[in-house]
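Section handout 9: paired folding examples.
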Amino acid sequence: MGELQSALDALAAEDVRALPPRRQLEGVAELLEARNRIDAQLARRVRAAELQQAPEDDGKKTMASWLRGHGRLASKVAGQTVRIGRALEHLPALEAAFAAGAVSADQVAVVAPVVTPGRRAAALEQGIDLAEVDRMLAAVAAQHDVQRLSRVVHHYLSRLDPDGPEPDPTDERSFTVSTMSDGTVVLRGQLDTIGGEKLKAALESVIQADRPKGDLRTRAQQSADALVQLADNQLASGGLPILRRVKPSVAVTVGAADLAAPATGPAAATTGFGSRVSAETARMLACDGAVTVFRLDEHGKPLNVGRTTRSWPPHLRKAVEIRDDTCVFAGCGAPKHWCDVHHLIHWAFGGETSLDNAALLCERHHTKVHHGFRVQRDPGGRWRTFRPDGSEIVIGTSLLV
């Protein structure tokens, strides 16, 4: 271990930015191989510790819980490391390739289901030579990527039980939504093949429909925006099930003083699920939302509740949609059914709920104009967009000769 630490110290001291491109890539390849070898030894140690019930020495019940608490690993990574260690006991050829750095931990995790107790028993009953299966999968893993390996493993498992019952797709689905201390929402889960296909088809339709010029978002950011857009569309359609006699919606509670103040007001409002957001975010949501006025006593308890009023009645929204047709932010053009109706001068600051004070904006650009950007309609009816520094965003035009 001391020699390994010294080697890592020497690597950390190397000026990698001075290396030529080819040497950079060679170094990356060498490090990937070294990481595979270290991961192999980690899995071996984890399995040995599990067999010894070593976590009890630190007051932990399982190796997965020890890895989460002491190794600060995510639950998924901790569980995968434990499963890899168990699987390698039955896959000596794959274990050797892993130890040599030829395959990765992700590839071993793909193969691990082959040697669960039930599947080992099924292979034994059918006279399948697991040693040969092990050698074949090790060779595939060493020569192909995870996707190709996954298809080979799936093919083997399908043939192992060709007459078995069709699996219930819901057994393979799980999804959790966790809220961090800063309000950020973390999504974790998995879907069966068909469920995943449905989600990917829906996301792809939204992604491909919204490709503005100069879009610098990563694929992950595009997918996240598409997921939020799907939720927006469902909430706006009114077709979701009624939740405890109330139409599902995004709820935000904010004090009247914070709502009307011109300041951003960080952490001034509370969402329906308990997260804190700024007063500016609350104003953005209130642009095209339902507003209910509560009168509170000195202890913050409601004394009475006023009538819920909608900022943009249906006939006005329709008029805005007919006039603007798409998101008016420069270079966007997102379809109207993705858009909110934005008050150019917010009603909390005295702006009217009128056609002249309205603009159609998609969720992303609605957020932008509540955080420094600005849109305005000139006397000729053309929409113009301005950055926070006051400069105008001008879309390039071609000259006709």
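Moving on to protein 2 of 2.
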Amino acid sequence: MGAFTDYSPALMTDMYEYTMLDACLKDGTAGRKCVFEVFTRHLPEGRRYGVVAGTGRILDALEHFHLSEEDLKFLSDRKVVSPETVKWLENFRFSGSIKGYREGEMFFPNSPILQVEGTFGECTLLETLILSILNYDSAVASAASRMVSAAKDRPCMDMGGRRTNEWAAVAAARAAVVGGFKGTANLLAAQIYGLKAIGTAAHCFTLVHDDERQAFRSQIAALGENTTLLVDTYNIEEAVKTAVEVAGPQLGGVRIDSGDLASLAQRVRNQLDALGATNTKITVTNDLDEYALAALQTAPVDSYGVGTMLVTGSGAPTCAMVYKLTEREGADGTMVPVAKKSKNKATVPGRKLAFRSYEYNLADCEHIISGSEEALAAYTPDPEWKDLLVDYVDHGTIDPQYQGHDAIVAAHEYRAKALAELPITAQSLMKGEPVIPTETTVL
């Protein structure tokens, strides 16, 4: 394996996580029990909700979060940490606990999306990795969810791999499915996560043949008459006519990748019907975003391929999530809530509970309850409220139900249900405030 693929999640981090660990090991605070919390102070401008994605990838990374001899030598050679810290890191495995919002869950400003509990030393090492996964994956899932709403019941497919970093492409494919997409063009994502893979041919395939008819014949010979033929290399009307002549009325589909997609789809649909290909599907691709999808709602389109705007979060490529210490063990062994007081960056002290309340089966408020472990243990929420937190890791043991293909399917289904429980304005593409308020109570 080359260095490109054989990497260490334990080094996918900022240097200061290790320098802090080193200093804390020397002064004796590295072993203090701590609670860290991941949240965002605000949604991207005008967005009504966000969708959590990436937690399963964090659990996958956590399984491999330990340092090889090569990693330790690197930290030592660079003098990032002292020899004593290298020794401490030799057998490092995260032994703390993690709970948080499930994948596919809606989140809002100040939602405690993830809470990491353990010693300061082990929790601080996870910060960068957790944030880089959650910020990107949740941005993609949030954009995907808006696109799926705009597409109504027509399936959306991820075709964004060529518009982002090659590793991000794999993460984006997974996050897109959590966000409501039905499949991806990315084969590595399909292999790793068991996703539906899609794809047939590009314009170069048509251009390498002497004419369009030969290209269509070749594709049908290889992939069968149920394949999807790309019809906008030259003249769309001619291409559709040729496609039906070559494949017969059983032709699976045609793809349009340019032009005024709505009017072209309408003309192509009418032409296909006139040629007897009434079951042939129409798919469109070409710089689509949620607004373009909404504009195509009345057009006779059967599915969409979305690229650039999906993998860039449709203008919001990060969720601005942060990882903050909210509670720590004091010198006398008792747990003390802590908070930043910085201007515009203040935090709410204490560990959190999170609930959602409903009226007439529609969500009306996010309730964040903050306090000490004892105070939270004694707290009784309204019996009608929904508990939003699940346990991902218990004292170093990962719950496998939140990893792998089945977890992605569960998150995909959960997102649709959770979105349906929000007021309908959540699905508006107009700019607005978060669709439900968040109320924080400090016990």
